[in-house]
TrEMBL record:
Residues 2-250 form the ABC transporter domain. One of its GO terms (cellular component) is plasma membrane. It comes from Oceaniovalibus guishaninsula JLT2003. GO terms for molecular function: ATP binding; ATP hydrolysis activity. CDD domains: ABC_Mj1267_LivG_branched. Keywords: ATP-binding, Nucleotide-binding, Transport. It holds the Pfam family BCA_ABC_TP_C. It comes from the Bacteria. This is Putative high-affinity branched-chain amino acid transport ATP-binding protein. PROSITE patterns: ABC_TRANSPORTER_1 (PS00211), ABC_TRANSPORTER_2 (PS50893). The keyword Magnesium does not apply.
Length: 257
């Protein structure tokens, strides 16, 4: 589905991404791991259109999407979440979901004046879908709660819910487990697995919790110094001396052995 070919992203003389090449298969849950400063989030931002690459190419389903802005990618079904959730804090959980779909009739003054019946129909459909999403995520009891009052884990579930409001094809999750307690992390993991298995979502996720990665991901890609170091199953990754060295350094690696 997503193919990244020799992508570079430089900031002056600093090469945050330095020739990364990888593939994310349709219907997969792929983990992207690596030490701090490996270039993971920068690569996410390039794929998702937040940053333009210095060079290289990104394709989705064989179509070149290099440098397309996030709103164009949104309409193609490519979404990205962030380590810190971006909710509308003063709005309810349900209202946050209803805001997601683009090109709603109520967004134009003309329709607000002359097509009120259409707007009411759309709002009723959005309300129904939002309630279905919240029930799927097991947070329907929070639908009238202000989003700013949610816990970190509940906000991560809300971000997953946003992707469901537009039937995303591929979702890039940036540290979905950050700041989430173990119980809610299990709920988040369950939701990701269900979206993958029942609705065909493709996921790529940056995560430092290796147990969480191991539970969800069949393929794990390791980055170091802006490049792809290796990839494999979680067990293969944990046993790879290059990965141990990238995380711990040569001296610590030798002590560990």
């Amino acid at each position: 589905m997503i193919v990244v070919s020799d992508v570079h992203k430089h900031f002056g003389g600093f090469r945050a991404v330095d020739g990364a090449t990888l593939e994310i298969a349709t219907g997969s849950i792929t983990g992207l791991v690596g030490p701090n400063g490996a270039g993971k989030t920068t690569l996410f931002n390039v794929i998702a259109g937040v940053l333009s690459p210095t060079s290289g190419r990104v394709t989705m389903d064989g179509e070149d999407i290099t440098g397309l802005p996030p709103h164009d990618l949104f309409h193609r079904g490519l979404l990205r979440t962030f380590q810190i959730a971006h909710e509308f804090a003063s709005m309810t959980v349900r209202e946050n979901l209803m805001m997601v779909p683009a090109r709603q009739s109520g967004e134009t003054l003309w329709n607000a004046w002359f097509h009120r019946a259409r707007i009411r129909q759309e709002e009723a459909a959005l309300l129904k879908k939002a309630d279905e999403v919240l029930e799927f995520l097991t947070i329907d009891h929070l639908k009238e709660e202000r989003a700013g009052n949610l816990s970190g884990g509940q906000k991560k579930l809300l971000e997953l819910g946003r992707t469901m409001m537009v039937d995303a094809k591929v979702v890039f999750l940036d540290e979905v487990g950050a700041g989430v307690n173990r119980t809610l992390l299990g709920t988040v993991g369950d939701a990701i697995l269900r979206l993958n298995r029942e609705r065909g979502y493709t996921f790529c996720m940056i995560e430092h919790d290796m147990d969480f990665i191991g539970r969800l991901c069949e393929t794990v890609i390791v980055m170091a110094e802006g490049r792809v170091l290796t990839q494999g199953t979680i067990d293969e990754i944990k046993a790879d001396e290059r990965v141990i060295e990238a995380y711990l350094g040569t001296g610590l690696k030798n002590k560990a052995s």
